[in-house]
Q: What sequence folds into this?
C-alpha cells in the first residue's frame, strides 16, 4: 500500500476564512511534506516533518501553519489567505531516513481556490 | 542558475518511437535522482530512481546518470499516447529531506 490520502480534494475559501487541509498515510513513513504547485510550474517545498518534528520551513508566510499530530497525520491550517495562494497543495511521505535515497510518494492533492 | 534544469518542451514523438528526456543539476553534492510523471490535474507519480552512474532499466523506462557531467536522463522506449504527460526531474542531496524539482518537460506522443 503506497497510498497517501488527502482531504478535501477541492476547497474554495474566502480571504477571511479559516480552513485546514488533511493528509494521512499508513505506510509507517516518518517524514511528511507539504508542497505547493501552481499551474504549469513544478512543486515547491513548503514544510517537512521528520519524526513529528518540523525540520524544514521554506520561509512560508505565517498564514500557512503546519501541524503533525502523530506519525500518520499531517495538517495544513490556512488563515487569511490571498488569491495568489490558489494552487494545488500536495502532501507527500517518505520512510524518514536522512540518507538521501528514500522515495517520496504523493497524495492526490487539494486544489485550493481563494476568492 | 537553477538547481535543476529541464527543457520545457513540448517534446513530440510518434507512437512507438524512443522519447529522450534530459535534466541537468548544479549541486555536486546531489546523490539521489528521481523521475516523476504528472498528468494534467493529477499529482506526481514516481516512475524511476537512480543513485549510481550508469543506466537503470525498468520495463520501457531507462534512467541514465552521469555525475561527472551532472546530467540525468530518462528514455522511454515504444512510446504510447498514454505516456503523454509532464515529466519532472527531481534531485536530492545525500543528507536531508529536501527534494528539488525541475520545471518539467511536456511529452506528447502522437498516434
A:
Amino acid at each position: 500500500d503506497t497510498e497517501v490520502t488527502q482531504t478535501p480534494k477541492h476547497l474554495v475559501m474566502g480571504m477571511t476564512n479559516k480552513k485546514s487541509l488533511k493528509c494521512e498515510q499508513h505506510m509507517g513513513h516518518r517524514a511528511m511534506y507539504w508542497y505547493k504547485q501552481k499551474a504549469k510550474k513544478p512543486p515547491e517545498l513548503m514544510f517537512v516533518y521528520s519524526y513529528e518534528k518540523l525540520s524544514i520551513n521554506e520561509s512560508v508566510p505565517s498564514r500557512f501553519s503546519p501541524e503533525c499530530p502523530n506519525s500518520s497525520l499531517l495538517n495544513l491550517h490556512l488563515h487569511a489567505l490571498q488569491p495568489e495562494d490558489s494552487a494545488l497543495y500536495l502532501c507527500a511521505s517518505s520512510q524518514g531516513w536522512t540518507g538521501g535515497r528514500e522515495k517520496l510518494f504523493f497524495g492526490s492533492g487539494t486544489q485550493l481556490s481563494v476568492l | 542558475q537553477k538547481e535543476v534544469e529541464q527543457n520545457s518542451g513540448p517534446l513530440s514523438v510518434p507512437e512507438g518511437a524512443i522519447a529522450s528526456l534530459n535534466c541537468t543539476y548544479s549541486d555536486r553534492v546531489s546523490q539521489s535522482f528521481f523521475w516523476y510523471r504528472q498528468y494534467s490535474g493529477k499529482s506526481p507519480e514516481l516512475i524511476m530512481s537512480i543513485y549510481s552512474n550508469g543506466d537503470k532499466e525498468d520495463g520501457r523506462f531507462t534512467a541514465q546518470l552521469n555525475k561527472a557531467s551532472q546530467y540525468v536522463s530518462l528514455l522511454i522506449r515504444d512510446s504510447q499516447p498514454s505516456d503523454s504527460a509532464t515529466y519532472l526531474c527531481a534531485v536530492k542531496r545525500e543528507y536531508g529531506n529536501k527534494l528539488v524539482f525541475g520545471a518539467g518537460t511536456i511529452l506528447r506522443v502522437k498516434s
Chain B touches chain A through 25 residues (CB under 8 Å). The first strand of chain B starts at residue 4 and ends at 6.
